[in-house]
């Protein structure tokens, strides 16, 4: 009954235009942290394909930071809760939970002795709070600023100080403990967005939406001067000090990142990140020899000082819910698509990812199938069927300019590789597309939800919101209706077995039902009904001996065709997130995708 999660292809940071993102660095230099939805994602900085996900928050998490010892992580969410949990155990045991403010938390800082913590954000009664990390006891108050606070930092050396940057354009300084307001600095003319102490605490820098970066004395807080004049043409979203404190990394909405020499306050290196809106840089982190920045599109760039025009590595993926996935015929490449129209290809052995290039749908992808020669076919709610073709150098496929107009919104599709035939189910009709041209269409009086083709018998099964599976036979380009199979809920997915002897269908009534294709009768009298909510997707193992189903209840269940009473339940396969797609890489390996934007690979050995 054993199964294991082999690896996670993690979601990218959830970004929002005009909002800075906070990256957390590991004091031991191994990992970095960011958030997406209610997940905190921990990634290995040397090999970002290695990731871990923490999902115990009940609402959106905004920030996560390592304690200076590296043994704990504190994460703060949109309700004002802070959870402190350990990094050593795989289960990430909760140490403490506090509610320091009554609203979204935007930044967190620890004192160097791991004992005190300060959180800031958008509380109803206050914009920040300082407390003991063990007991939650207050050690001062954060006051003196009139609008939400965006950023905070703790001086890493004694005497302790706290500095905050606020939307009232000011920087505030607090002395303690217990911490009391000392003064505000009013150099910025727009929102102050980021504030950070140098590693030795001798200086701190602040950055704002006025494009300026200012440098202050770490102890007396007096202004030392401005870095650059101004530093950037657009708002500065984030700053990060080099480990030796001699240089500063900044990133901006003007689509650049820059390295500054602190002593001369001059720019040393400029990184041009692109020219599109999604190339705005919303966060940066300098950790050891790695310089990271995050684009508005969510991709993580590893900056290369020796070649500022091209990042040494770009980590791609999704930061919005994944709507569908499909497998390349080589069974090593996985394609996933999210509801913003982003399509990603994954190497399932290394975890490396690339975005499919060219002009795609620009909005939600509802169906996706691999075609001949590494091509990829997708249909989206721009009412088109599009094709992406792989270049010869092994790079990710690129969309061609051709698009087949479908006439109404597509719900699902399937494809026969051998004769390049695609059937697209739209809300009004079933379209037969051969060789990139629409050949015929059959109007339907129900709303299709899924479509599957058996290439051998050329039978087509279409699931409907009318609680039925409609069977058709395909003769070149003509569809002829046949039997109808009735379910107790809307049919959500259906798949023919690899050898065409079975059809499995799942529905909104929590059931997975297996039919023989000879007469479309029930294959056995055992009901597969262990899901506790709508079943979203089903998939056959390549040898046709097992079926996997994924549901709104966050579980994956693996069913055996030969012994219908046997099944393996993977509970919380995607914690707090419904499962939106499944496929088998081989007879013992399943890939699953969910609304949490993560792709997980599972090892499910066969039972004796």
From TrEMBL:
A single GO molecular function term of this UniProt record: actin filament binding
UniProt keyword annotation of Repeat present: yes
Gene3D superfamilies the UniProt entry points to: YVTN repeat-like/Quinoprotein amine dehydrogenase
Entry GO terms, CC: cortical actin cytoskeleton
GO BP annotations, alphabetical order: actin filament depolymerization; locomotion; regulation of actin filament depolymerization; regulation of actin filament polymerization; sarcomere organization
Keyword Ribosomal protein: no
Entry-linked Pfam families: WD40 (PF00400)
WD repeats: 54-95, 185-217, 229-270, 315-356, 528-563
Key words of the record: Actin-binding, Cytoplasm, Repeat, WD repeat
Subcellular location: Cytoplasm
Membership in a protein family: Belongs to the WD repeat AIP1 family.
Stated name of the protein: Actin-interacting protein 1
Organism annotation: Eumeta variegata
Gene for this chain: flr
């Amino acid at each position: 009954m054993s199964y294991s999660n082999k690896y996670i292809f993690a979601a990218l940071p959830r970004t929002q235009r005009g909002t800075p993102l906070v990256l957390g660095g590991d004091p031991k230099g191994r990992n970095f942290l960011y958030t997406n939805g209610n997940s905190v994602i921990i990634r290995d900085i040397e090999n970002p394909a290695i990731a871990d996900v923490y999902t115990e928050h009940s609402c959106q998490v905004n920030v996560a930071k390592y304690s200076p010892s590296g043994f704990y992580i504190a994460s703060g969410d949109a309700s004002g809760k802070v959870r402190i949990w350990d990094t050593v155990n795989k289960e990430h045991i909760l140490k403490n939970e506090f509610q320091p403010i009554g609203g979204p938390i935007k930044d967190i800082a620890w004192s160097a002795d791991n004992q005190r913590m300060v959180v800031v954000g958008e509380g109803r009664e206050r914009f920040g709070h300082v407390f003991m990390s063990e007991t939650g006891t207050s050690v001062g108050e954060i006051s003196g600023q009139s609008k939400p606070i965006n950023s905070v930092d703790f001086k890493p050396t004694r005497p302790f100080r706290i500095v905050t940057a606020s939307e009232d354009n000011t920087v505030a300084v607090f002395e303690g403990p217990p911490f009391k307001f000392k003064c505000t600095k009013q150099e910025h003319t727009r929102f102050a967005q980021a504030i950070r102490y140098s590693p030795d605490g001798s200086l701190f820098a602040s950055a704002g939406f006025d494009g300026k970066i200012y440098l202050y004395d770490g102890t007396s807080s007096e202004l030392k001067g401005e870095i650059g004049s101004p530093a950037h043409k657009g708002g500065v979203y984030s700053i990060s000090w080099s480990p030796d404190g001699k240089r500063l990394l900044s990133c901006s909405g003007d689509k650049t990142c820059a390295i500054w020499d602190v002593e001369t306050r001059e720019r040393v290196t400029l990184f041009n990140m692109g020219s599109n809106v999604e190339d705005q840089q919303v966060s940066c982190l300098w950790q050891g020899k790695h310089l990271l920045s995050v684009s508005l599109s969510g991709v993580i760039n590893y900056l290369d000082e020796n070649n500022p025009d091209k990042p040494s590595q770009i980590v791609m993926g999704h930061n919005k819910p994944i709507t569908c996935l499909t497998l390349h015929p080589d069974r090593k490449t996985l394609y996933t698509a999210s509801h913003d129209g982003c399509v990603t290809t994954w190497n399932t052995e290394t975890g490396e990812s690339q975005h499919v290039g060219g002009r795609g749908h620009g909005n939600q992808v509802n169906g996706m199938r691999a075609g001949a020669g590494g091509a990829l076919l997708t249909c989206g709610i721009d009412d088109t069927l599009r094709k992406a073709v792989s270049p010869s150098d092994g790079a990710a496929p690129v969309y061609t300019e051709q698009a087949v107009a479908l006439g109404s919104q597509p719900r699902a599709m399937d494809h026969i590789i051998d004769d390049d035939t695609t059937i697209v189910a739209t809300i009004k009709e079933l379209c037969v597309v051969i060789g990139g041209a629409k050949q015929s269409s059959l109007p339907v009086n129900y709303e299709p939800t899924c479509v599957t083709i058996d290439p051998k018998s050329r039978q087509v099964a279409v699931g409907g919101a009318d609680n039925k599976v409609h069977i058709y036979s395909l003769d070149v380009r003509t569809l002829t209706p046949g039997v109808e199979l009735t379910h107790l809920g809307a049919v959500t997915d259906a798949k023919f077995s690899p050898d065409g002897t079975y059809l499995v269908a799942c529905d909104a009534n929590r059931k997975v039902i297996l039919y023989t294709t000879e007469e479309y009768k029930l294959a056995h009298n055992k009901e597969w009904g262990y899901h506790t909510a709508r079943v979203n997707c089903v998939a056959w193992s390549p040898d046709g001996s097992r079926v996997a189903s994924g549901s709104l209840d966050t579980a994956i269940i693996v069913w055996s065709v030969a012994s219908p009473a046997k099944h393996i339940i993977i509970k919380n396969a995607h914690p707090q997130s419904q499962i939106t797609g499944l496929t088998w890489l081989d007879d013992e390996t399943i890939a699953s995708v969910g609304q949490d934007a993560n792709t997980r690979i599972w090892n499910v050995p066969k039972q004796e």
